Automatic annotation (TrEMBL):
Entry coiled-coil feature ranges: none
Pfam families: Methyltransf_25
Protein name: Methyltransferase domain-containing protein
Domain Methyltransferase as annotated: residue spans: 63-162
Entry's transmembrane regions: none
Disordered as annotated region, ranges: 166-219
Residue spans of biased composition, Low complexity class: 175-186
Amino acid composition bias (Basic and acidic residues), ranges on this chain: 187-196
Length: 219
């Protein structure tokens, strides 16, 4: 593990006990959750439809990457059938799994493990089918912690269902969630959304360029 990633692991292990305790943390988490839910249709995933009997056998898979204590899982959990979380911090993973179980989800439905998809080589426990073929991979409030954003997009895109999988990152800058698909040509609406996103601040402009260019590379 690189020194950068190890520093993140230690920092988030230390933060895990208090991660969800302060009002501002709840506020940010709620903002991201609301934004994800509001843009659910725009994300273009064939979400589950609990009222449709024919839909019950379909597995809709979410990768909650850098899952922390599970904010993304809480936001999108009702729209999918299987969730796998990965986080560099084993203490965050422990909190995630406690929260998932206490919210009534089985381990088969939602479970997180400690790991780093950006390591070379990737650990064998992350290489099996359980951690492949996702309909959507979401990085909630985590992308800015990654050492090599282009590698991160490439590695995450490799975990998606071919042709249909979607990669999305959520952040709280200006209380919005920024999303981009890694596997599809942007629609007119996506282009408008990205244009709005680009004009918000110079930091965001540079990150958007990085994201678009890396997304193109990832296919
Ligand atoms: C600000 S927290 C966000 C947690 C959660 N997604 C949320 O929305 O509340 C960032 C998370 O990224 C994780 N992280 C940082 N670098 C990582 C890496 N290379 N691979 C996996 N997780 C990482 C940290 O351990 C931490 O749990």
């Amino acid at each position: 593990m690189s020194a950068f990633t190890e520093a993140n692991r230690k920092a988030f292990n230390d933060l895990s006990a208090t991660y969800n305790t302060k009002p501002w943390q709840h506020k940010i988490s709620q903002q991201v959750s609301d934004a994800l839910q509001q843009r659910r249709d725009w994300l273009g995933v064939a979400w589950t439809q609990p009222d449709n009997d024919d839909d019950k056998s379909r597995d809709v898979r979410l990768l909650d990457y850098a899952c922390g204590t599970g904010a993304t899982t809480k936001a999108l959990g009702p729209s999918v059938t299987t969730i796998r979380g990965i986080d560099i911090s084993e203490s965050m993973v422990a909190k995630y799994n406690e929260a998932a179980l206490s919210s009534g989800l089985t381990t088969e439905q939602a479970h997180a493990v400690a790991g780093d998809l950006f390591a070379t080589p990737v650990a064998p426990q992350l290489s099996g089918p359980e951690f492949q073929f996702f309909d959507i991979a979401v990085i909630g409030l985590g992308f800015h912690h990654f050492e090599d954003p282009a590698l991160a997009i490439k590695r995450l895109a490799e975990r998606l269902k071919p042709e249909t999988g979607v990669l999305s990152r959520g952040n709280n800058i200006n209380t919005s969630t920024s999303t981009a698909t890694a596997t599809k040509t942007p629609t007119a609406r996506e282009k408008v959304e990205r244009q709005k996103w680009r004009t918000r601040s110079s930091t965001r402009v540079s990150r958007a360029k990085e994201w678009r260019s890396s997304s193109r590379t990832a296919g």
